[in-house]
Amino acid sequence: MQIKRIPYGPESEILKGVLQALRSGHWPTLLGAWLHFEISFMVWLLIGSMGIAISEEFSLSALQKGILVGIPLLGGAALRIVVGPLGDRLGPKVVGMGILGLEGIGLLFGWLGGTTFEAMLGIGLFLGFAGASFAIALPLASQAYPSKHQGLAMGIAGIGNSGVLLATFMAPRLAEQVGWHQVFGIMLIPVMGTALLFLWLIQSAPVRNEPTSTKQDGIVGLLRKGLQDPFMYWLCFLYGVTFGGFVGLSSYLPIFLHDQFHVGMVNAGTLTALCALAGSCARPFGGFLADRFGGLVLLQKLFFVTAILCLASGNLEHFALAFIIIFLIMICLGFGNGAIFQVVFYRFKSMMGTASGFIGAAGGIGGFLLPSGFGWLKEITGTFSAGFFVLGLVSGLAGISVMMFQRSIRLTKHKSIREI
What we know:
By secondary structure, this protein is mainly alpha-helical. The protein has a single domain (25-203, 215-419), classed as Growth Hormone, Chain: A. It is 82% helix and 0% strand. It contains 19 helices and no strands. α6 (92-112) runs antiparallel to α8, α9 crosses α17 (319-347) and α14 (230-261) packs antiparallel against α15 (265-293). The longest helix has 32 residues, at 230-261. Residues 1-8 and 207-215 have low confidence and may be disordered.
């Protein structure tokens, strides 16, 4: 009996292309980059995941709740600017181990301290060190793969965003069983395990020639180059919308679901985890589609769809409708996160660490502004609708800026982003 070979369908062809792309680079390095980002992202979003329990213990106002869950995002944003060029100069392996060590210290403080709101703000800033993992993981993935697969490689490393899935799903359950202070101590275990695996996976990474600009320029020189390029500021704005929206909503969503729909801490964490899973899984596909069709083409569509969804969420009285809209918003933001760094690579190939630091910092700042802004607008308007309206407005402006940039490329007849 002769078995006929089943021809590849469109889905099989895409999967085959992804597997071929993965084999073209150094997958242990990619795995190490993803693991570092995954666990660090869990640490980064730990306070937000337990925000309901912490805010109830300290009887916080809407604005204080937003600041509490946003402060680690702000701390991570500031550190990313420094970690990017440090990674370019000292190597991502050394700097990556340092970040994991600092995460451990912050978790220790959270475990043994954190008895006041002010103390939790300090611990939140310290846990912000975990957010700097972004400026290590993406350059590592970039170095391990050829140019034509940059979107996919950095998208896979960026799946570390799914650390929010684990944090929001597990942390509330653990907090309910053992208390939220103890969760910080428990989190020390995966951080220490990650440090050992990171050392083992990265040690066999291929040695690549360092770009000339990185050899000649010191850290200050790399920072100056980034600050002098207007294109950097624009990409910072775009990533502030996509990643800032993703991480900000992930951090604030449990409090939103609890305050708006009276959802319990565990169920709010589960629903947030579902949204985070959707956004995290969308990121590598955003990078893959950007490799095939162009990052700017994809971004323009995503920003406009996000704007429409945010404006459609004006009626937040119906739980099911509100959740579906937020779920779709997270998917769009996840696609955008992957697409942007395909553009970043082609513009800043010789200084990926520095560029990742600047742009990642903007994402962290956006993540801080979202929960803080939502909390502030809730206090002055009495509703969360105003926050979604502002997010939709900013997304629409981002889409218009991408559309105008694409037109300028056609009018000036530039062949690529590098020439701009």
